[in-house]
Amino acid sequence: MIYHFRSLSFYTLKRNPITNLSTNAMKKNTLLTALFIYCIQLTYSQSGQLDPSFGNNGIVKSDMGAHFNYNNTGRQVLIHPDGSIYILLNSQTFITKRLPDGSIDASYGVNGYSRALSFNDAYAALQTDSKMVIAGSANDNFFYIARLNANGKPDSTFGDNGMQTTAFAGRSFATSVAIQSDGKIVVAGYTTNANNDAYFAVARYNSNG
Q1: Rounded to whole angstroms, how far apart are CA atoms 5 and 42?
Q2: According to the model, what pLDDT value does residue 48 have?
């Protein structure tokens, strides 16, 4: 709900002989009340609006070029210092890159999309060199990590042709990823034992996987 205060009214307050409040004190109270109302006006009259410089009046809809219909959802958004927007899509896991105005960056991957990765429920982190690290789970048995170059193509210098897996004793699920200041990659999640008890799990990788 948005409240708009169109005008402020001030009243002259006389000394009240019963309460014995001074005129100066009453004036201060009036000023504070007016200031409070003015602050409310500034706070509540600024309604959130779509940015008309982004996409079509603030909205971007994408046709990913498939010849059939399938569901996909935006799972995570990452912002590059230059204003570019990376969106991690889930179901078939891949990254799409948008320019600051919402248009597709056709130079990224293939027409703005990285190749699909064979793991689910992924999370991503953006390195300072614009490479993208994506962590998820493959067949519930591994931590699965992939890295893309700044152009959206697989980074062949990381792991095995851009991918790395880590197996734990039981079923394993990666649920977060972060990049250290020295470039090492930390992935956290959980693993289960034969009784299906869940345990915290974390792995750290060198910058080359």
Answers
A1: 9
A2: 75
pLDDT of residue 45: 40
SS3 59: strand
| CB contact at 8 A, 96 and 110 | no
d(CA 80, CA 1): 33
Contact 190, 173 (CB under 8 A): yes
CA distance 33 to 114: 57
Q: How many residues does the chain have?
A: 209
CA dihedral 112, 160, 178, 104 (to 10 degrees): 0
Report how many helices (DSSP H) and strands (DSSP E) the chain contains, helices first: 1, 10
Q: How far apart are CA 4 and CA 38, in angstroms?
A: 10
* pLDDT average per 10 residues of sequence, the chain (209 residues): 32 38 42 41 57 84 61 85 92 87 93 87 93 87 91 94 86 91 94 82 92
**Which spans in the chain are helix H?**
23-44
121-143 per-residue burial string, b: 16 or more CB within 10 A, e: under 16: bbbbbbbeeebbbbbbbbeeebb
| Among 142, 198, 205, residue whose Cα is nearest residue 174 | 142
Which structure tokens are listed for 53? 């410089």
